């Protein structure tokens, strides 16, 4: 891509040299310059001034639009994509610039990802390549033509030029506040200034609700992310902050105004998106957990008639071990990483670190510790279940989590409930 910058006027020092060369005979004699060489210097200087005067003209022939790619059905594409389309008439060029590049094969990629120190990069490609990719994946492509004057076009163009310098391309990715959608938003806010006004007609939503809208096609991913993100994502936000997702970036700018005039003068649907698949109930985590709950009821009835067998005990320990691992993972994300959205996670109440001690005591056969801890966790699980239902916590629990809590209530309280049943 050819970035054009406005050339300065003729420098006073250069001008003095110009006068000296063409007026001072001594200088001419010293340098032994012929008349033809003097004409060459004159031509070069005049040409330089002309090019400086015309440097701003290309900006009138450049069109910058905001392009939104709708969400796909894979994890890497489920949130959509956004960037700038830049078209130059002379010479004819058509590029797409965005902030969504990352490298799986980079050294320490997964470690940096877990630590919350993942580097993304600004990237550029021919727009035709983006179009073919969207068409192949069945993703919608929308072009928002922006109402920018020549000065604003030049400013945005040069900001992209600066960002595209090799040393400026990498940036630390932030899931909510610094990603492929917030970068274009922030650049446009810088160019349009304080006169940019977002519409206040959109309902407020939480980050968790917005993420769930996009993740519904990947229900197990949706549940996993819901488990590991904390209460920060449960604050209600307006349309500007909702624009951390490309779909809402599109809504934000289609309805935005500058001095009463629309920012987007035309919205064009270049590719209509394919209909996203509707999932059956049996594909969702809650269905699998309900089956496990039914199994737990069966085990309770079996234990009521035959007592708790060794295989039931081992199945319990296996289940507790999975809960303990999840608890340790939540603690790691909360205390051992820079992921701010995984802190203050109230799921830690029911995915309690006490399960780690319970598992150690159970596998090592320490009944003197194992049985009392089961009673403590049973009481705690009942309390958390009730508190979650009445919604007094700053963070809601996923419906599938309530089913898991119900399973744990039956497991942890089996001995107590069996004693009550036998007494009757």
Mean pLDDT, to the nearest integer, reads 85
Cα distance spanning the termini: 82 Å
Q: What does the radius of gyration come to?
A: 32 Å
Number of discrete domains: 3
Q: Could you please say which CATH topology of the largest domain applies here?
A: endopeptidase fold (from Nostoc punctiforme)
Account of the 3D structure:
With 424 residues, the chain is an alpha+beta fold. The chain has three domains: 12-55; 59-202 and 238-271, endopeptidase fold (from Nostoc punctiforme) (Alpha-Beta Complex), CATH 3.90.1720; 284-423, no CATH class. 53% of the residues lie in helices and 14% in strands. It has 18 helices and twelve strands. It has helices spanning 12-23, 25-31, 35-53, 57-60, 109-115, 127-137, 150-163, 182-192, 207-215, 219-228, 239-242, 246-254, 285-306, 310-335, 354-363, 367-390, 399-412, 414-423; strands spanning 62-69, 81-88, 93-101, 119-126, 141-146, 170-172, 196-197, 205-206, 236-237, 257-258, 261-262, 264-271. The strands form three sheets. A seven-stranded antiparallel beta sheet has the order 6-4-3-2-1-5-12. The chain has a three-stranded antiparallel beta sheet with strand order 7-10-11, with no helix packed on it. Strands 8-9 form a two-stranded antiparallel sheet. Helix 15 runs antiparallel to helix 16 and helix 16 packs antiparallel against helix 17 (399-412). The longest helix is centred in the last third of the chain and has 26 residues, at 310-335. It is elongated. The N and C termini lie far apart (82 Å). The model is unreliable at 1-57 (pLDDT under 50).
